[in-house]
Specification:
single chain, 3-stranded antiparallel β-sheet, 30% helix, binds 2'-O-acetyl adenosine-5-diphosphoribose, alpha/beta, 6-stranded parallel β-sheet
């Protein structure tokens, strides 16, 4: 059997914007309303863990009330014709809920918490009991922290992500300002000659990267356009 082409997709907050989750750096974005180094850094968590838990609990309550949008769904649909690997900077679970099978989270997962003393011990929060289950204590009694990669911490999945990008036959970037490294640098690992598509209504510059087709559109519109392009190939 002929192998399916490998389509690697790198997503950022913009892919979830049309589901109603705010991005970080757009006007009205999360980092305009919250001091990023207080709520999303290792130092901030050490200084005031309660504030950080509260911040992520709010994000969780928001997440359980939103749904995957047509861009998440279109990416899941592409699995019919492509081996699709999603590398996401997002901590939401909307790609999984839309049906994507291979999702690699670079910055952690909102619905998970992990032990501060046993870093391999991870629990998934029970969506139905978010209000009553404190995210600060594990079922085994351990003190817990959000399963989020804070600023100042390494990104454990970056090597896996680089490996995937190196294998891509087609590389797609959706809804990221390309300012946070190492995620923003993934595009550098695409093999020469691989077509790259970048969907974003306000795309960042990608100097020195060949073969980028910019689709200046929202994620859902841009995915429709991408589907047409892929069909015509
Ligand atoms: P940003 O908020 O930096 O960028 C969001 C991007 O989405 C921008 O380029 C927007 O133009 C674009 N956008 C807005 N609406 C869109 C739509 N409807 N469809 C498609 N794109 C749209 O978010 P990220 O680049 O994802 O990390 O941010 C990277 C990391 O910074 C996050 O993972 C987070 C943050 O600090 C952590 O918290 C660890």
């Amino acid at each position: 059997m002929e192998r399916k082409p490998i389509l690697v997709v790198s997503t950022g907050a913009g892919v979830s914007a049309e589901s109603g989750i705010s991005t970080f750096r757009d006007a009205g974005g999360l980092w305009e309303n919250y001091p990023v180094m207080q709520v999303a850094s290792a130092d901030g968590f050490a200084r005031d863990p309660e504030l950080v838990h509260r911040f992520y609990n709010e994000r969780r309550k928001q997440l359980i009330n939103v749904q995957p949008n047509d861009a998440h769904k279109a990416l899941a649909e592409l699995e019919k014709d492509y081996d699709v690997y999603i590398i996401t900077q997002n901590v939401d679970d909307l790609h999984e809920r839309a049906g994507s099978s291979n999702v690699l989270h670079l910055h952690g997962e909102l619905m998970k918490i992990r032990s501060i003393i046993h870093p391999d011990y991870v629990e998934t929060l029970d969506v139905d009991h978010l209000e009553t289950t404190p995210a600060t204590r594990g079922k085994n009694g351990d003190p817990m922290r959000p399963h989020i990669v804070f600023f100042q911490e390494p990104v454990p999945n970056i090597e896996k992500a680089v490996e995937l990008v190196r294998q891509a036959d087609i590389f797609v970037v959706i809804g990221t300002s390309l300012v946070v490294y190492p995620a923003a640098g993934l595009i550098q690992f695409v093999r020469p000659g691989t077509p790259i598509y970048y969907i974003d209504p306000n795309p960042a510059a990608t100097p020195g990267i060949a073969d980028v087709t910019v689709i200046k559109a929202t994620a859902t519109e841009g995915m429709r356009e991408l589907e047409k392009i892929l069909l015509s190939e």
